[in-house]
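SEVERITY: medium
COMPONENT: batch folding queue
REPORTER: lab tech (J.R.)

DESCRIPTION
The queue accepted two submissions in a row. Attaching both inputs and their returned C-alpha cells so the on-call engineer can compare them side by side.

ATTACHMENT 1
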Amino acid sequence: MTTTGHPVTTALSACTATARTDLARHPRAARRARTWARAALCHWQITGEQASDVEVVLSEFVTNSLLHACGGIRAELGLLSAGGIRVEVHDDGPAAQCTRADQEDHGRGLQITTALAVHSGWDGAADHSTAWATLPAARL
C-alpha cells in the first residue's frame, strides 16, 4: 500500500453518514459525479465553498480513473463527525501514482487536490486502486 499525507485511518466506516454511487465509464462521468455529490452534500446541509471543494476533488479523482484505469468506478463520500468530508474513488485499475511527466502533460489537478485536502493519498494493488482525500470542515 502506498499513501501520501495521512494513512487511511479516517475510513468511511468512521463517518456519521455516507453516500456512494457507481459511475459508468463515460466522458461525462466526472460531471455526473459532481451532480450526484452536490445532491448528497445538500442533503447533509453542506454548501458553499466546502461543497465546491468536494466537487473539485471528486471530479479530479474520477477523471484520473477514466484516464488511467479500466472497469468500474465507484465514488463515495463520508461526513466526518468534526464536519469534514471524506472523498474516495475506487476503480478496477492498477495503483499507479501520477508522475511529474503526467502532470506536465495533463494539468495540475492532483496539486489542487492536495492543496484543498487536509490529508490525501492513494492505495491499491494490480487490479484495483483507491484515491482518497479528507477535506476540512467549512471555514467560518
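ATTACHMENT 2
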Amino acid sequence: MQMDCDLIHSTDLSFHKFIYQEFGINRGVYNTIDQWFFDQGCINVIHRRTEIIHFLHFASRAFEKSENKLVFGSGRLVTYLVKYSERNRSNDYIEQPMNIQTKTG
C-alpha cells in the first residue's frame, strides 16, 4: 500500500479526520490504538501513524464495516491489535530511544 506522505506528516487533527472519514473511528478509539502502539515501542509518530493505517486496513478485511465504520465492540479492539502485531509486524517497529543533540550557547 502506498502511503500519502502529506497525510502522515499532517497535524493530528487532520490525520484523525482522515481516519474518521475512511474507517469511522472516533477520537477515543483512535487514541486507544495510538497509545497501544506507543506502549508496544512504536515511539516515532511517523512509524506509528503508518502502523495505525496498516492496522485499520487489516481490521477492515477481518470483518464487515457497519455503515462505513469499523465497530470493534467490547474487548475486540485489543484482540485485533494483538492479532495484527503477531501476524503482520512481529514487533519490527520497536525503536531505540533517539539521542537528540542540542545546540549550546
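NOTES FROM REPORTER
The mean pLDDT is 80.
No errors were logged for either attachment.
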